[in-house]
Design brief:
It contains four helices and no strands. It is an all-alpha fold. The protein has a domain of 84 residues. The longest helix is centred in the middle third of the chain and has 72 residues.
Length: 161
């Protein structure tokens, strides 16, 4: 009986609410329902192929995993798991990513603007090699093409014996 009285009391409070508040509550409930439906659709659309292809990949790769387990299991147990525990406990993954991003940004800035960073001369040498290879290929193709045209024109001009 008390539950019914509480419901009647809450209904009267609902009737006293302004239209603005009711519309905001309705919009919030509608947005939450829409988000839940989209999450369901995304899970069905993305999750099903991932589950199917992941299962097929696991089925195909599992013999290799079983045969090579003696090789990768000890490093995983003695290096991987303690490292993971350390990163989870200390929050090191975020710190590691932040440090790597800052170091990479510093390296790129120095490579583009400032003095050459460590290893920058190797990048320059690689770029020069690529440019030289491209120019050599271009000249080789040009000389080969010219040679082919000369041979073809000589055959057309010379009478066959």
């Amino acid at each position: 009986m008390e539950t019914a009285k509480k419901m009647v009391h809450s209904m009267s409070r609902l009737r006293q609410m302004s239209w603005k508040k009711l519309s905001l509550i309705g919009a919030g409930v509608g947005l939450a329902a829409m988000a839940l439906m989209m999450l369901t659709v995304v899970t069905l659309v993305v999750g099903t192929p991932v589950l199917i292809f992941g299962g097929i990949a696991l089925l195909l790769v599992s013999p290799c995993l079983c045969c090579t387990a003696p090789l990768w299991l000890p490093p995983l147990l003695f290096i991987g798991i303690p490292t993971l525990i350390f990163f989870v406990v200390t929050g090191g993954i975020a710190m590691f990513l932040a440090v790597m991003t800052s170091v990479g940004s510093w390296w790129l800035y120095r490579y583009r603007r400032g003095p050459m960073p460590p290893g920058g001369h190797l990048v320059e040498r690689m770029i020069d090699r690529l440019r030289n290879a491209a120019s050599r290929t271009k000249s080789t193709l040009k000389s080969t093409r010219d040679g082919v045209y000369q041979v073809a024109s000589a055959r057309l001009i010379e009478p066959e014996l």
